[in-house]
Amino acid sequence: MAVKNFETLDTSTDVTTTRTLLHEAIPLTGTIVSGTYFETYLPTGDTNIKNYSHGMFQSVYDYPYLSSSANHIFDLSLGYASTSGMSSSANEQNAKKINIYTNMAQTLLGYDVSGNVDTFESDLDLTDNDSQMKEVFFVNFSRLLTKDQVKKGSFSLTLGTGSWALPYGGGPGYGVTLTDLSASDTAGTNPNINGGEYGLLYNSPATASALGAVFYQAGVAVITASIFASGAEVGASTPLGQQDQFNLFHAVAYGTTGSWTSLPISQSCDAIRRRIYNLSFNNTTELNSTVYFCRASSTKFNYSSNPTYTTGSKIRVKNVASDTPMSYITTVGLYNSNNELLAVAKLSEPLKKDPSNEITLRVRLDY
User: Fold this and answer.
1) What pTM was computed for the model?
2) For 184-211, what is the mean pLDDT?
3) 86 in helix, strand or coil?
4) Same-domain status, 62 and 203
5) For residues 61-83, b (16+ Cβ closer than 10 Å) or e, as one string?
6) In a shared domain, residues 238 and 362
7) Whether residues 89 and 124 fall in one domain
8) 313 and 191 in a common domain
C-alpha cells in the first residue's frame, strides 16, 4: 500500500455510533390478496393462495406461489381462547383454533401474574383483564415486507363487512378502515410484552374501543371478531350466491352457526381474505453505523512510503529542495491492535496533504 503511517484512534473522541431508520411504503390492494390470480378450474380458485395439509393457516403470495417470481406476503389464520363461549368439542377443528390463539398469545403477550397465557385485549393495560378479545384472526406479515418492524402510526386495513356477494356494496356502513394513528414513537404503544411493542387499531377516524392491535416488531396484526358484529355474512363455504345474513364470529348472539364453528380454518380465512379491500403500512429498516474520525494533523501524513514517491533519492513532488513536503491521500485503512487490516475506504479523488493543512476523514461502517 501507499501509506505505512499509523495513527491510534481515541475511542472517546474519534469513534461514535449512529442509528438510522429507513422506511418503505408497502401497499397491498385487495386485487392482489384475492382476485388477480383467480382460476376457475382450480379447487381453491386463487393460484397465489397456498393451503396446507395441517389446515391451520394459509399463505398469501403476490404471484402464483408455484412461480419462482412469487414473494410471500403474509399468513392468515384465526382462533379463539379456550374460555371463549364459542369453544366446543363439536366445532370443526376446535382444538386447532384454540391452539392457534394460545400459541400467538403466548408468543406475543406472554403470561399473566398467575402463570396463565395472557389474553389479547383492546387496550394497552394487560393487567386488568378487561376489554378482552377472545375471538380474533391473525395477519402475520413476512419479514420480506416488514423488515425490522412496522412503522408506528402507518398501519391501515380496510375491510368490507357486507355479504359475501356484495362485501362493499352496502354503502359506507359496510366497510371499516382500521388504523393505528393513535400510536407514535413516543406514545400510544405498550412495550412491555414478549412480542415487542404494539399499538391499538381503531375504526378510522376513531371508535370508542379498539378493534385490534398491530405488533410492530413481530409484524403481526390481530383483529377482533367483533368487527363483523353488525350482522355481516362472511361465513359461506362458497363465493357463489347470496347467503343468509348471520354473524361470523359472535354466532351465539344471533342464534345461528358461525363459520368459525362449522367450517375449517382455511375456508374461514377465504371469507376474511376476500373482504380485504386495502392494506398498507410503512416498514422500517434499522441501519446501525460506527463512525471513525480519521484525523491527519499538520505534522503527519506529509510523506509516503510508496516506492514511487522518490526517484534518485529525491521526492518526486518537490522541484526545489526547500519546498515543503506533500503527499496525496487516496485510501484510509482501519487496523486492529495487531496492525491487521480490517477495512479499507477509498476516496473519490486524492486529497493533497502538506504541513499547511489538516484533514479529517469520516469513515462509516454500516451493519
Assistant:
1) 0.77
2) 82
3) coil
4) yes
5) bbbbbeeeebebbbbbbbbbbee
6) no
7) yes
8) no
Overall average pLDDT of the 4-27 stretch: 89
Q: Evaluate whether 223 touches 178 at the Cβ level (below 8 Å).
A: yes
**Interval 95-125: pLDDT, tens:** 999 999 999 999 999 988 888 899 999 888 8
Q: Between the CA of residue 202 and those of 122, 213, 269, what are the distances in Å? A: 9, 9, 22
Bigger pLDDT: 253 vs 71: 71
- Domain boundaries, position 245: 22-283
> How far apart are alpha carbons 208 and 247 in whole angstroms?
21
Q: What residue type is assigned to position 89 of the chain?
A: S
Parallel/antiparallel/unpaired status of strands 276-296 and 156-160: antiparallel
Of the candidates 262, 224, 223, 265, the one whose C-alpha atom is nearest the C-alpha of residue 246 is 262
Judge if 201 and 307 occupy the same domain. no
With both helix axes pointing from N to C terminus, report the angle between 94-108 and 265-273 in degrees, rounded to the nearest 10: 60
Q: Residue 256 gets which letter from DSSP?
A: S
Do 184 and 332 fall within a single domain?
no
* 29, three cell numbers: 390492494
User: Which neighbouring-strand residues pair with 289?
Assistant: 18, 366
User: Is 290 within the bounds of a domain?
Assistant: no
pLDDT score, position 102: 96
Domain end call among 237, 256, 283? 283
The total domain count for the chain is: 2
Contact (Cβ atoms closer than 8 angstroms) between residue 102 and residue 214: no
Q: 144-192 pLDDT, tens per residue?
A: 999 999 999 999 998 876 555 555 555 444 578 899 988 988 888 988 7
Which of 261, 283, 305 is a domain's end point?
283
Q: Is residue 1 part of a domain?
A: no
